[in-house]
Design a protein that fits this description.
Layout (H helix, E strand, L loop, with lengths): L1 E5 L10 E5 L8 E11 L1 H8 L13 E9 L11 E5 L9 E5 L4 E2 L6 H21 L7 E5 L4 H12 L3 E6 L2 H9 L2 E6 L4 H9 L4 E6 L6 H5 L2 E9 L12 H6 L4 E3 L3 H4 L3 H17 L6 E6 L3 H9 L6 E5 L1
Parallel strand pairs: 8-9, 8-11, 9-10, 11-12, 12-13, 14-15
Antiparallel strand pairs: 1-2, 3-4, 3-6, 3-15, 4-5, 5-7
Helix pairs in contact: 2-3, 2-9
Length: 323
Amino acid sequence: MTHAIRIHATGGPDVLKWEQVPTPQPGPHDALIRHEAVGLNFIDVYFRTGLYKAPLPATIGMEGAGVVLAVGEAVTNVAPGDRVAYAGGPLGAYATERLIPADRLVKLPESISFQTAAAAMLQGITAHFLLHRTFKVQKGQTILVHAAAGGVGLIMCQWAAHLGANVIGVVSTAEKAELAHANGAAHTIIGHANLAAEVKRITGGAMVPVVYDGVGKDTFNASLDCLAPLGLMVSFGNASGPVPPVDLLTLGAKGSLYLTRPGFATYTANPADLEASAQSLFEAIGSGAVKVQVNQTFKLAEAAAAHAALEARQTTGSTVLIP
């Protein structure tokens, strides 16, 4: 038997239940892994609340790192004893042991700890495709990153600064502004009430070619006003709630803007793309260009407390759950 956090109904953190479940056995293309660390991400909240749908009862969680215990007969890319990490699903990370399709696993270098991997895989690979593929950030560009002191935000600030970009980080408190600045944000803005005016001041009126917005409803309209003509609005999260329907005429009126909603699953659907992104992330961590900050840890059994802290914006950097 193993243990897992399961939900039998959607709702608040209290629906997360620590339960004993049977140890699964791998099918031909599966690997059974023992988790050493599990990542906490806002997408877990979306599944818990029902914003994103999953058949119930469900074990949520999209990211983890651990050791392979057994593999199916058709698996060739990993073997028992390998240190591995994964992100992006399928659901099931909130467990001491789990099955996962083996082609979703990447081998973990000895130089990277399980906690770092569990904190970095989903957020780091997201940062990679946002900065290198959704919009290819170039040296000298000024970009805007919301929630700059969060898990994805801190990685994006560091990585974009390493690429030579000037990062404007939007945060909610003075303490988070200091953290974002220490991690590569050349400028910080607290709150979004006067966002466009502040961006105009910082850029001398030029505005920015891209906005990365993982907050959603509360910041979407203000973000559009920060874009230069032909700029790209990258809406990649819903921390404040889903963005309402968008009038396409608004995009035209504000400067023939582009809008995209990138998804992790699409950018990593091809195992080769997943492997390439992971290796780029590991190299960035290994070189020191990206430093992953695990600023909070909770026991996996106490996932409800971790969710409450995340939703209350009491966390910075990354949070890891320890089985």
